[in-house]
Amino acid sequence: MKKTDTLEIRFKSLDDFKSEVTTALSKKKKLVQPTHLILFESVTAFRSFMTIQKIEILTVIANREPGSIYELAKLVDRDFAAVLRDCVSLEGTGFIRLEEKKDGRESKVPVLTFPYSKIVIYLPSSPYQIDFREVA
């Protein structure tokens, strides 16, 4: 899988989001968030969500493409349950998908939501980026 795209992290307050939804409803327009964009309410919310362990998980998924969460846990040398919790959290915010593995064992394969190789975080002061090739 060729990874050339960039995932963007941006910040939008709850009030701004509500205003955008209200405007879209009044104009009968759909609000569609692009797959390359993840929004957080604040830098504080992002900082409390994104841990070093989650960055490591994203890096390993991007570079090693593990075939299951169990394999991912082995690669990051962490407890399976902790890695599963982090994966579910990353899936809930749109960083990854957990795809059903067709092996009859109900295992899930963690994959990036699209083939991104870096994350750019648009902080209020200036952008910051994480490049998976540099982290690995």
Q: Topology of this structure?
A:
Layout: E1 5-11, H1 14-26, E2 37-40, H2 43-49, H3 52-64, H4 69-76, H5 80-93, E3 96-100, E4 108-112, E5 116-122, E6 127-131, H6 132-135
Parallel strand pairs: 1-2, 1-5
Antiparallel strand pairs: 3-4, 5-6
What's the CATH first level?
A: Mainly Alpha
CATH architecture label name? Orthogonal Bundle
Residue runs with pLDDT of under 50 for 5 or more positions:
none
Lateral arrangement of strands in the main beta sheet:
2-1-5-6
Major β-sheet, in short?
4 strands, mixed
β-sheet strand percentage? 15-25%
Q: What does the average pLDDT come to?
A: 87
Shape: globular
Rg, Å, rounded: 16 Å
Could you tell me the CATH topology label. Arc Repressor Mutant, subunit A
Order of helices and strands: EHEHHHHEEEEH
Q: How would you describe the overall organization of this protein?
A:
The chain has 136 residues and is α/β, with parallel strands linked by helices. The chain has a single domain, classed as Winged helix-like DNA-binding domain superfamily/Winged helix DNA-binding domain (Arc Repressor Mutant, subunit A, Orthogonal Bundle), CATH 1.10.10. Helices cover 43% and strands 24% of the residues. The chain has six helices and six strands; from the N terminus they run βαβααααββββα. The protein has a four-stranded mixed sheet. Strands 3-4 form a two-stranded antiparallel ribbon. A hairpin with a 4-residue loop joins β5 and β6. α4 packs across α5. The radius of gyration is 16 Å and the shape is globular.
